[in-house]
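wait is this the right file?? whatever heres the structure
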């Protein structure tokens, strides 16, 4: 604020981590400019319809009446309003009408999540045409970088030491700074690996461990197999996330969870699994539903446990009680990851910690470990020598591989057969914590981390993670020493027994598929219908035994 009113610039870019208070800052600037008669009208541009409403409500609390229902075709708005809220898409529809309105008054334009202005050529051009005559422009973003090289309107670029143009922010407030000021929560990343099995388009069956070094295509297919609701990986991880949410709610009673899904079918399937796990219906938010904004608002004001969404709640939407997340989407750009994690970092009380569950995929683990790294929007790179002449082509290929068309092609090129989850490690504050060897879902080793209290300062969290890792290592060492002694009977723990039964059941289901051609998911569903009980990932030993006996009975009858 001090810097802004000292310089009073026409254009100002504020980069601040999600949850740091960009909305409060922008509305404080707007109120002051209105009070000084430096502007007469406010225009707020947001990425989504829901965010228009959120801005209007926040502005009303600041004493600035904003019309979120305005559209370019409408022309005028009530004299009760001093401003309007529109979307980037709405501006692109009729930029000339917006320009005329901007010229008529001394207008302050607030460009929320301004990197979206580069999403499409028409959006960027529309924003530039509509707001070029504005008296003041205030651009806000939590992620000042893009996955492409489209320039962002009204943002300055300057070449760095390497000659590559980068965006220049007037003020930057990063995640590390906000964390030190207790403005945002620290994030605990819970990574899960496991064995994945799928069939390629050529008919080959491939088995691989999630997170092990694979080609890009195989990594994508392993990830899609893990996120398949018919497998065991996603139910296991959702059950673990719900256990974590239960622990957090001991200290934060209204804490909620959010699952970010790839598509609508997956979102609905995950909601069904959550209902089986929790006994409570999850709120499903789909971006093309008219009631989507209302559902988000209702969830925000309630104490319900889970919400499942497709991308819509990934950016800007303010649900401060979200404390546990499951990153269950194949979208893996740094921009989307930062926006998604931003939904969980908004601090309310000192000591709150966010927990995000994610697949052990190298790309995602890299993003998680770089949470505190500041990024800028890079427009392109300088070609320095003959060896770099293919740089531009490499960039185009990378963009093509990351496009939705490429992922749609991948979706058709394989069939998920089965998956099993294993707890891998915890990433926190740039460090990694975990236990030696495979850790089964539901085991004591996993609960060492799932059971961490919901209210801890970052230093306490770091100390506790080190302590639990150290204590478990001592226990494992003592146990291995005891097991080497003669005449000692080793008892099989419950989690090991369940893991063995699940593996046996999955093996029999796979054999049944080879014999009958019936899909794995259909067979699992038939067994559950016949024997009762929840998904295999959360079934009891008796329920798993019953299903194993049932499928063996089917096999013997088919043979006879």
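ok assuming it is, sequence goes like this
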């Amino acid at each position: 604020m001090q810097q802004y009113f000292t310089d009073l610039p026409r254009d100002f870019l504020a980069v601040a981590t999600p949850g740091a208070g960009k909305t409060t800052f922008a509305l404080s600037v707007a109120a002051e400019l209105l009070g000084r008669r430096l502007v007469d009208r406010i225009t707020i541009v947001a990425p989504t319809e829901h965010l228009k409403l959120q801005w209007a409500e926040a502005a009303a609390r600041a004493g600035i009446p904003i019309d979120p229902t305005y559209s370019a075709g409408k022309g005028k708005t009530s004299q009760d309003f001093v401003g309007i809220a529109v979307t980037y898409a709405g501006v692109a529809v009729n930029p000339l009408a917006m320009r005329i309105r901007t010229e008529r008054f001394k207008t302050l334009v607030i460009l929320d999540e301004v990197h979206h202005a580069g999403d499409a050529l028409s959006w960027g051009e529309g924003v530039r045409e509509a707001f070029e005559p504005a008296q003041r422009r205030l651009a806000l973003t939590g992620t000042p970088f893009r996955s492409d090289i489209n320039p962002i309107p009204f943002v300055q670029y300057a070449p760095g030491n390497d000659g590559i143009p980068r965006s220049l922010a007037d003020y930057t407030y990063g995640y590390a700074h906000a964390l030190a000021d207790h403005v945002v929560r620290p994030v605990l990343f819970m990574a899960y690996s496991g064995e994945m099995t799928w069939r390629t388009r050529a008919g080959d069956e491939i088995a691989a461990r999630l997170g092990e070094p694979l080609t890009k295509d195989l990594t994508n297919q392993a990830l899609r197999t893990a996120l398949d609701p018919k497998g065991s990986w996603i139910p296991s991880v959702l059950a673990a996330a719900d256990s974590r949410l239960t622990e957090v709610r001991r200290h934060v009673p209204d804490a909620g969870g959010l699952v970010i899904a790839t598509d609508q079918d997956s979102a609905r399937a995950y909601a069904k699994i959550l209902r089986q796990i929790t006994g409570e219906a999850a709120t499903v938010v789909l971006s093309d539903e008219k009631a989507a904004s209302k559902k988000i608002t209702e969830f925000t004001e309630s104490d319900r446990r889970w919400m499942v969404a497709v991308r819509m709640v990934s950016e800007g939407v303010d649900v401060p009680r979200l404390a546990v997340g499951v990153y269950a989407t194949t979208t893996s750009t740094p921009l989307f990851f930062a926006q998604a994690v931003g939904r969980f970092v908004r601090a309310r009380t000192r000591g709150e910690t966010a927990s995000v569950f994610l697949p052990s995929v190298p790309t995602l683990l890299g993003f998680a470990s770089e949470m505190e790294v500041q990024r800028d929007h890079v427009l392109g790179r300088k070609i320095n020598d003959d060896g770099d002449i293919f740089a531009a082509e490499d960039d185009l290929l990378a963009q093509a591989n990351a496009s939705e068309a490429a992922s749609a092609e991948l979706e058709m090129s394989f069939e998920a057969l089965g998956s099993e989850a294993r707890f891998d490690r915890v990433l926190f504050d740039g460090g990694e914590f975990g236990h030696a060897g495979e850790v089964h879902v539901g085991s004591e080793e996993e609960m060492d981390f799932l059971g961490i209290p919901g209210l801890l300062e970052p230093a306490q969290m770091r100390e506790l993670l080190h302590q639990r890792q150290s204590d478990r290592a001592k226990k494992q060492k003592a146990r291995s020493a005891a097991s080497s002694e003669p005449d000692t009977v080793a008892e099989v723990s419950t989690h090991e027994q369940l893991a063995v039964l699940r593996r046996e059941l999955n093996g029999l289901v796979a054999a049944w598929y080879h014999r009958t051609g019936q899909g794995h998911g259909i067979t699992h569903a038939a067994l559950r219908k016949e024997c009762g009980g929840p998904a295999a990932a959360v079934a009891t030993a008796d329920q798993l035994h019953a299903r194993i006996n049932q499928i063996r009975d089917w096999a013997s009858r088919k043979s006879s």
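DSSP finds 20 helices and 21 strands in the chain. so i think its the right one actually
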